[in-house]
Amino acid sequence: NAGVTQTPKFQVLKTGQSMTLQCAQDMNHNSMYWYRQDPGMGLRLIYYSASEGTTDKGEVPNGYNVSRLNKREFSLRLESAAPSQTSVYFCASSEVNNYGYTFGSGTRLTVV
Amino acid sequence: QKEVEQNSGPLSVPEGAIASLNCTYSDRGSQSFFWYRQYSGKSPELIMSIYSNGDKEDGRFTAQLNKASQYVSLLIRDSQPSDSATYLCAVLTASKLTFGTGTRLQVTL
Questions:
Q1: Per the CB < 8 Å rule, is B88 touching A98?
Q2: Beta carbons of A35 and A46 less than 8 angstroms apart
Q3: Tens digit of pLDDT for each residue in B62-83?
Q4: CB-based contact, B106 to chain A, within 8 Å
Q5: B36: which of A95, B15, B44, B109 fits an S-S bond (Cβ 3.0–4.6 Å)?
Q6: How do residues A7-29 score in pLDDT, each as one tens digit?
Q7: A101, B44: Cβ pair inside 8 Å?
């Protein structure tokens, strides 16, 4: 049982480049989330999808877009990367919105 | 005032001792509380959840909730070096889950 799978694990982008972070879960969870984690800031919610077909902004959505492709997959897109987006990104899922997250292994993104 | 506050630590305890990790929250309407453990360079992992006042035990872990005082604690009995990690408190308030910045625990031999 793979749980939550994120790709890639590491990425270096130049300022202005775009990329998509992929996330897939095989637990039949309804809700999926994207967080970023920065030193001293804790985990901050970027976007979430409470159920298939819905997406909503979290605390820090600027500069990001998301797509809930189906129940399993939830992708995060950076259209024009900025150094301020250097962070560790975590995807998570839960059966019930906000309860009992399972996190993916994370993507360490550096924007230069 | 931060919504969820934790002492960043490090909290250093000797092996076999009880580690006590604390978390305070600002909104009296908060209804659910979670503890996640995060090893260095790894993703957070849910270890405890608590929804009502009092204690909840799971193995060596005990979560304590006091809604009147707006704090939630995690006790780790018989601490082991493998418990060395950062412990994140998360508080659910009106469909918004807020994480604290975590307390780093070091269990020394």
A1: no
A2: yes
A3: 999 999 999 999 999 999 999 9
A4: no
A5: B44
A6: 999 999 999 999 999 999 999 99
A7: yes
